[in-house]
Design brief:
Growth Hormone, Chain: A
Length: 424
């Protein structure tokens, strides 16, 4: 008998939900662990033994350790997009996750800052596979009326990661050592590799857990979208579509806002609002926890009305409102509550913006289009922390930096109004 999930014959009988268990769940776990892996460095930069062992004293080095990941992540997404379309999401995922494990092992072995740079670079390049495989698998495994829910599910890993990982990393580093935090995450990442190999396949027809009725249901949803996607089966056609570049701009602007705000919000709370350090960490964790509910709720609702831009535009407006209120409130408690609400809507626009990609690109080219989309967007995202840092230093206040970020969120809101008029 062939290995689990490798036969091309689907079981007959009642409707199964293999698409949620065999695809949705593994993607959720992968994004959760990846977020913990990439944010490991943020916790360790506050760990004195880590800084002493590697001789890190310069603030510029600390910033570079964070930005090098975003840069290589953008490059990785671009390259992996073409690889995924060439060899499939399954093989691409196995290769990417393997080198992701290697990156964590190298991080735990690092004896110098340069070795840590290599670890972060390899991690960025290898984790770049995630969005191309996730978008490709979502396009092939879920009908159009479920794609927002599916993407909200796995995108929630970006919220679950900080909620679960931040305290665990701190506890492991404090009680066992910073190298052990890398080794532990390397082991967890290796388990993710095994999980991916056992559970995921390129399409429903390759998976034995999919019943005939589920396969028919998925194919029916795909056939419904074929007419609309008739002219999107070539990369050039998608790249010539102004809607694609509007989506890139929306995602890029909200990413600038997310990374700019999330990087400096803890410092802002402690330095300006006088919130204790540990308490500010809990404020951030609470915000990411609430973000999970916000993303799932918006995913379900947007699948019902099939108007994603309405929710992305609404989230952009709320980001502006919550950020303004949190900056100008004189209440410490009010600032914390508004920060939780701000974090809860920061991530929501990203998942729904990527869902709109399925209206402009077919599954056949989704890997490449997803790679180009992510590459440009995350290259733009690197601007966020730099804008807040530079403007705040020039003005002597976080207010100037946050107001500068708000300009990008306004652009996102305006573009969403245009997308709404076009039926998105």
């Amino acid at each position: 008998m062939s290995q689990l999930g490798t036969t091309a014959t689907a079981a007959t009988g009642k409707m199964t939900k293999a698409r949620w268990i065999q695809i949705g769940l593994p993607l959720l776990i992968l994004f959760t662990v990846s977020m913990i892996d990439k944010s490991n460095i943020n916790i360790l930069l506050a760990n004195k033994p880590f800084l002493q062992d590697l001789g890190i004293k310069d603030g510029a080095i600390k910033g570079t350790l964070s930005s090098i990941f975003l840069i290589t992540y953008a490059i990785g997404q671009f390259g992996w997009g073409f690889v995924v379309d060439r060899i499939g999401a399954f093989k691409s995922g196995l290769i990417g996750i393997f080198f992701w494990v290697v990156a964590m092992v190298l991080g735990g072995m690092a004896e110098s800052v340069s070795a840590l740079f290599w670890s972060r670079s390899i991690l960025g390049l290898s984790e770049g596979v995630l969005y191309p495989i996730a978008l490709t698998l979502t396009a092939k495994w879920f009908p159009a009326n479920e794609q927002a829910k599916a993407q909200a599910l796995w995108f929630n890993g970006n919220s679950l990661g900080p909620v679960i990982g931040l305290p665990i990393i701190a506890i492991v580093a404090q009680n066992f050592g910073w190298r052990e935090s890398y080794h532990a995450l390397g082991a967890v990442s290796f388990l993710c590799l095994i999980m991916f190999w056992l559970m995921v396949r390129n399409s429903p027809s390759e998976h034995r857990a999919v019943s005939a009725s589920e396969k028919e249901y998925i194919e029916k949803g795909a056939n419904t979208a074929k007419k609309e996607l008739a002219d999107t089966s070539e990369v050039k056609a998608v790249l010539k579509n102004p809607i694609f570049w509007m989506l890139v701009a929306v995602y890029g602007c909200v990413s600038i806002g997310f990374f700019g705000i999330s990087t400096f919000l803890p410092s802002y709370l402690t330095e300006v609002k006088q919130v204790p350090f540990v308490q500010s960490a809990f404020v951030n964790a609470a915000g990411y926890g609430l973000a999970i509910l916000v993303q799932m709720g918006s995913g379900f609702l947007s699948d019902k009305i099939m108007k994603r831009a309405v929710f992305v535009g609404g989230a952009s407006a709320l980001i502006i409102i919550f950020l303004l209120l949190s900056m100008f409130t004189s209440s410490v408690m009010g600032a914390q509550l508004l920060s939780i609400l701000l974090i809860s809507v920061l991530l929501m626009p990203a998942a729904l913006t990527m869902t709109m990609l399925h209206k402009v690109a077919s599954p056949r080219v989704m890997g490449r289009i997803g790679g180009i989309f992510g590459s440009v967007s995350y290259a733009l995202a690197a601007v966020g922390p730099m804008v807040v840092g530079a403007v705040s230093q020039a003005t002597g206040s976080f207010t100037g930096g946050f107001l500068a970020l708000m300009g990008f969120i306004v652009i996102s809101l305006v573009l969403c109004l245009v997308l709404m008029r076009k039926g998105y």
